[in-house]
Specification:
This protein is α+β, with helices and mostly antiparallel strands. It is built from 4 helices and 5 strands, in the order E-E-E-E-H-H-E-H-H. Helix 1 runs antiparallel to helix 2 (78-106).
Length: 147
């Protein structure tokens, strides 16, 4: 409500406050009262997978399109053929990188208090599945499979 922004890992949420862990040279725990929160945006920690996938798909698509185009319109020699194909794949990979990063940013989840009369309980119920502690408890409940 004050306009402050916090960034970090959603460690846990209680009935009254939310705890974030963030790294700014050293680990800092921040507790924020739920009544002061207007919205929470949840994103993945790492964009690496989306960026790599976008680059691979963009490079392959542009390389394939260039290959098909070069079959119809032959170049004068093999060096020009290789250079054209390489630059097309590199350009496609760069475009795929940008698109993958954008898609990852757009897929963030925004959580706002749904119940105006009791916003703390509403936020608690919505945020609990995304907390680190809740995720670890789910992993601990998995049965051990003998190998």
């Amino acid at each position: 409500m004050t306009g402050e922004r916090y960034r970090g890992v959603l460690e846990e949420v209680s009935d009254t406050d939310l705890r974030l862990t963030s790294y700014h040279g050293n680990w800092i725990d921040e507790e924020i009262p739920l009544r002061q929160i207007r919205k929470v945006v949840i994103r993945r920690i790492s964009k690496k997978r989306a960026i790599i996938t976008g680059s691979i798909i963009g490079g392959l698509a542009a390389g394939f399109a260039s290959y098909k185009s070069l079959q119809r319109n032959q170049t004068s020699n093999d060096i020009n053929y290789g250079i054209t194909l390489t630059f097309a794949a590199a350009g496609g990979a760069a475009a795929g990188l940008v698109v993958g990063s954008f898609i990852n940013n757009v897929t963030g989840r925004v959580i706002r208090p749904l119940d105006i009369t009791n916003p703390e309980l509403s936020l608690y119920r919505q945020l609990e599945p995304f907390t680190y502690r809740h995720q670890q408890n789910l992993i601990k409940r998995l049965p051990n499979i003998p190998q």
